[in-house]
């Protein structure tokens, strides 16, 4: 089925939402709901389809080319197609890297536009933001160096002139610029305040991957991002609601991140003791899976 469905997608235009959206969903689930052996074959089939990848690039570009909807909470057919496109692109990045699959057609993306799509919400539905975060996380994990993806934009022109001292930090973080890093961090913090479970999980995962990326590029910048005082206010905001338990997956994962980078101004021994006390009193068998995983990572980090 992958052959006819992927070929059908390649013959469509981005505005053919009724046909494309379920088709891209089928391709996405074909990658995820299969055995490792079949998964490798499925990735090879999709990455050998040049028309499909050209169509996928056009779909992704619609994220910043079309006007935002009037109702941010309403997932229009066009937004649903964008969600499917970003999720499929993220999966192809992940599995192409895992299996080192041959690439017949690259995805050329403007990094500034991709970042702006995440930084400036512009009435985007939550599911679309989550999908873009998934793609950003996959790209960050591969240091923006996937053979499937070509990064274009203002920060990609290297070697034209000798970098000035003020741009040496940008050179270390290439292809990201320092201002883009801090804008993205602020945006991620703001999105966490919305307390949407799906969005929170995607945002925290993106923040974790971003700090890990920064630590390999410039340790000082990574430590600066992880120790921003605003993070402590963010934790207080997340805990200021109906469920004030520290055993919330996004809170546990944030605290694990701050522990990993020794941000003692964000998380103190008192908070660590409180989490351990709550965990000791909780019925661990009844904790949601996301909470159990986050608690496990936190305890390992401690």
From TrEMBL:
* GO biological process, alphabetically ordered: meiosis I
Q: Which organism is it from?
A: Corythaeola cristata
- What is the name of this protein? MEI1 protein
> Which InterPro entries does this entry report, sorted A to Z?
Immune_Signaling-Apoptosis_Reg
Q: Which domain of life is it from?
A: Eukaryota
């Amino acid at each position: 089925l992958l052959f006819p469905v992927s070929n059908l997608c390649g013959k469509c235009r981005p505005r053919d939402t009724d046909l494309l959206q379920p088709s891209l969903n089928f391709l996405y689930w074909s990658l995820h709901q299969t055995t490792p052996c079949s998964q490798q074959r499925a990735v090879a089939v999709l990455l050998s389809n040049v028309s499909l990848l050209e169509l996928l690039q056009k779909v992704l570009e619609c994220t910043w080319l079309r006007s935002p909807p009037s109702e941010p909470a309403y997932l229009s057919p066009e937004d649903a197609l964008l969600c499917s496109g970003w999720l499929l692109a993220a999966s192809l990045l992940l599995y192409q890297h895992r299996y080192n699959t041959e690439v017949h057609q690259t995805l050329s993306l403007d990094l500034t536009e991709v970042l702006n799509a995440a930084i400036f919400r512009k009435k985007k539905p939550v599911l679309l933001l989550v999908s873009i975060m998934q793609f950003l996380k996959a790209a960050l994990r591969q240091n923006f160096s996937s053979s499937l993806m070509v990064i274009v934009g203002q920060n990609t022109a290297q070697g034209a002139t000798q970098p000035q001292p003020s741009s040496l930090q940008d050179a270390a973080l290439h292809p990201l610029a320092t201002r883009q890093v801090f804008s993205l961090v602020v945006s991620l913090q703001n999105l966490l305040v919305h307390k949407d479970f799906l969005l929170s999980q995607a945002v925290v995962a993106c923040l974790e991957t971003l700090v890990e990326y920064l630590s390999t590029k410039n340790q000082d910048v990574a430590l600066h991002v992880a120790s921003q005082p605003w993070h402590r206010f963010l934790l207080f905001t997340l805990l200021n609601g109906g469920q004030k338990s520290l055993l919330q997956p996004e809170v546990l994962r944030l605290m694990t991140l701050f522990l990993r980078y020794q941000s003692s101004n964000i998380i103190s021994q008192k908070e660590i003791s409180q989490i351990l006390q709550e965990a000791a009193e909780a019925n661990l068998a009844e904790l949601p899976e996301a909470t159990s995983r986050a608690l496990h990572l936190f305890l390992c980090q401690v």
